[in-house]
């Protein structure tokens, strides 16, 4: 476990560090300090910490640290249980991505028309944030190509399993590159999540933060 909790101690680019500073992110939260060094070493990571502990920035920085903005293909995919959460994650990703020129973040959720999403996918994106049902829909219509995904995030994995998305998630994960890094974030770690991690992840490191401070 690392003791220096400043973002400056991480192997992040100067623009990303400067942007974190401008957002008022000076110290890492405990789950960030525990998970980011492993994430930046390209390990698969299971991170368990309660709501409000800063999990979004942890995986977002993992995506952004290795994003190549010159390569216009989906390099990061975040799967979230609900549209509200997907919108929150996309907003945080966009704030953190301001450090890098022209990063396109696209949300793909149900409850909105399919056609504009297909047009957006044709125009391209670097990062997609979506809900399981709509992602499956795009995969089956072949309107999305996930073989270029190098960072895959399962956010609020316990909620997604509770909502019955387990099989959908396996299907989406299997559409991504086998060489991807997989990050799983959850507030709890029930048996279903352990099963998912064994099936979908490669020698994951487990980090757990019990209290918020
Ligand atoms: P979680 O996903 O763990 O529930 P969030 O990622 O939504 O939590 O983070 C909660 C809040 O904390 C957000 O408003 C976010 O902007 C803020 N935050 C995250 N990391 C830091 C940090 N290192 N310093 C200050 N604020 C932070
Ligand atoms: Mg969260």
UniProtKB/TrEMBL annotation:
Using the record's annotation, list all stretches that form the Helicase ATP-binding domain: 36-207
Q: This protein's superkingdom?
A: Bacteria
Q: Which stretch carries the motif Q motif?
A: 5-33
Which parts of the sequence belong to the DEAD-box RNA helicase Q domain?
5-33
Family the entry assigns:
Belongs to the DEAD box helicase family.
What is the protein named?
DEAD-box ATP-dependent RNA helicase RhpA
Protein species of origin: Solimicrobium silvestre
The residues of the intact protein that this chain contains are 1 to 213 of 461
